[in-house]
Structure prediction request, 420 residues.
Amino acid sequence: MRARTLRWCCCLVVTAALVSWSWTRGQEPTTNPPGQTAAKAAPSSAPSKAPTRDFSKLPPLQQQMALSAQRGADWLFRMNGTDGRFAHGLVPALRTTLDGDHYLRQAGAAVALARAARFLGNEEYTARARQAVLTLLAETEIDPKRPGVRTTTSPPVLVNRLAAAGLLVLAIHELPSPAEDLLQQSDQLCAYIRGQQQANGSLAYAEGTADPDGINEFPGLALHGLMRSQHARPAAWKAEVARKALAYYVPWWRGHKSTTFVPSQAAAYAEAYLATGEQAFADAVNEMTDWLAELQYPPLDPGHPLWGGGFMSWADGKAAPTAPTIGSAAYAEALAEACRVARKAGDLTHYQRDREALERCLQFLTRLQYTDANTQHFADWYRPNLLGAFYASNQDGNVRIDYTQHAVGALVQYLMYVVD
Prediction:
C-alpha cells in the first residue's frame, strides 16, 4: 500500500512539472526594465506587437514548429537596429557581443526575416526586413563599365560579390510585395550573376582570390536568388543559366561530395523545377537530398539521446560521426525544398521520406533554441536578448544571426509548403 501511494505521489510531481514546463515554454519574452537596456548586446529588446497567423488548429508537432518559428523571427526582429543592421551575435556566458560580423550574414538574416514576414503577415517584420535590404543595397553600385549591372562596393577579398548578389536578390523576392525600385535593383543584380557564367556553365566567383571551398557555397546562393526571382520577374535566360549550371555542378559534386554544397544548390534547382517543370532539376534535388538523408542520425539513440535528427559531418570523402550542430538547419532547408519538389511531382515515396527526415531535423533544432524554460539562470534584463535565438550546439551556447537565419528559414518553408 505504501509503495503504491509513493508511486502515485511521484506521478503527481512529474505531471505538475510537465505542466509547468509547457506553460513556461509558451510565455511571451519579457522586455527590459526602464533605464536598463540591452545595448550591451542587442539593438532592441521589445518584441513585435503586430498580429501573426493563428496556428491553434494545427496538430501539436506543427504548433511546436510554428511557435519556434515565431520566436526565432521575433529574435531577428529585435536584433535589427535603427541603422538597418542586425546585431551579429552574442556570447551569453560572458554577456557580450560575438565578433565576426559579415555582409553575407547580414544579407542572410534579411532573407529569413523577410520570409517570416511574408508567411506570418507581420507588417513590423516587413518594415524591418525592407530597411535591412535597403541598408545592404546602399553598399552596392552600378558597374561603371557595365550599365545595368549592380555589384557590391566592398573589395572581393571582404565580400564575395557573387554570393552577395544572390542573397540580395533572394531577400528582395522574399519580401511581401517588394516595390518596383527594389525589383529593378534585383534585375541589375541578376544581370551581374548572368555575366559571371562561363562557357562550361559554372559561375565565376573568385575574382582573383583563392578560395577553394567557395564553389560549395557561392554559386549555389547566386543560382538560388536568380531562380527565386523568376517567379516575379520571369525571363527565359534565367532558366537557361540554371540549365547550364546544372550540367556543370551536379557532375562536379558527384566527384567532390560536400554537405555544404547541397542546401543552396538544391534550393536553386527546386525553384528551377517549380518554374519550368523540367525533370532534370527534380532529379538533381532528389539525388543530393537522398545522399544527405543517409547522414542523419536516427531519432532514438540511447548512446546519444540529444543527437537524433541532426546530421553527421562529412570529411575526406566519408561520414564522420561527430556531434550534430546548428549547421543541420541548412540541411533542413534542403529537405524542405525537396518536399516542395516531390509534392509538385506527385512523388509520394520521396515526399514521405523527405518530410519525415525534415520533421526529425526540425525537432532537433528546436532543442537548440533559447526559451523561457532554459534561460532562467540569466538576469531578467538580459534574457530578452536570448529568447528565440538558436545556439550553436549542445556544448556551445553562443548565438549568431546565421544560426537563427537557417533555422527560421527551414521552419517557415516547412509550415508554408509541407504542412497540410
Summary: Residues 1-41 have pLDDT under 50 and may be disordered. The first helix runs from residue 2 to 25. Strands lie at 89-91, 96-97, 140-142, 150-152, 313-315, 318-320, 391-393, 396-400.
